[in-house]
Amino acid sequence: MQMKTKASSIIAVIIIAIVVGFAISDSKGSEVTNDTAIDSSQTLETKQPVFKFSASAMKNSLEDVGYVVREEGLKTLNAYVAEYQSDKLLVRFDIYHNKDNDQIEWVEINVDASGYINLNKPDAQPNSKVVEATNKMASQAYKFPFFNKNSVEEKKLTEWIDSNIAKATKQSKVIETKIGDLYFNMYGQPYMRFLEITSAPKE
User: Fold this and answer.
1) What pLDDT digit, counting tens, does each position of 11-48 carry?
2) C-alpha span between 192 and 66 (Å, rounded)
3) How many CB atoms lie within 10 A of CB 65?
4) Which of 5, 51, 59, 114 has the fewest CB atoms within 10 Å, counting from its CB?
5) What is the pTM of this model?
6) Strands 77-86, 68-73: parallel, antiparallel or unpaired by DSSP?
7) Which residue in 113, 105, 153, 103 sits closest to 135, CA to CA?
8) 91 pairs with which residues across the strands?
9) Measured distance CA(136)–CA(91) in Å, rounded
10) SS3 39
């Protein structure tokens, strides 16, 4: 009975992540254009790579599907931290954005199922079912619409995630790619997955 409850909880979070994937694309469209984020402080002459939507649009979309969002003030940036907890599995989005114009600087997405580790048996082999559930959750969460729906870039991102998500189980092995204007870095541990999305190469 307990296993069924856990499975149901994981499936529920996966559904949440899928809904998030369509929330921006199906919104009013005021935040997204084909080539640039709509922002009063941005102009078409901006030469730096940019995300296709604003930090507040991403925050609102996550809140709409049940994420709890708080704002953290940093020295030069602000961050929206969006979390969704289901049983022992946590999905977290960290959205770092410019204090002045709501422009996203980078995003980190973390899927954490480490709560399922038996602390009395720290050296035990990872539970394959939990690893598989972590992969599925990360695969869905990472497909947040960073690009326009049905675009070439969206298809490339989907293919890259599907091809590499099961390989991202070592923190020392970073899997990276560049799609459109954005840079993606994926890594992890058996019960954790991380994805960093930046508008410039990481130093």
Assistant:
1) 444 444 433 343 333 433 333 333 323 232 333 233 44
2) 21
3) 17
4) 5
5) 0.73
6) antiparallel
7) 113
8) 84, 111
9) 12
10) coil
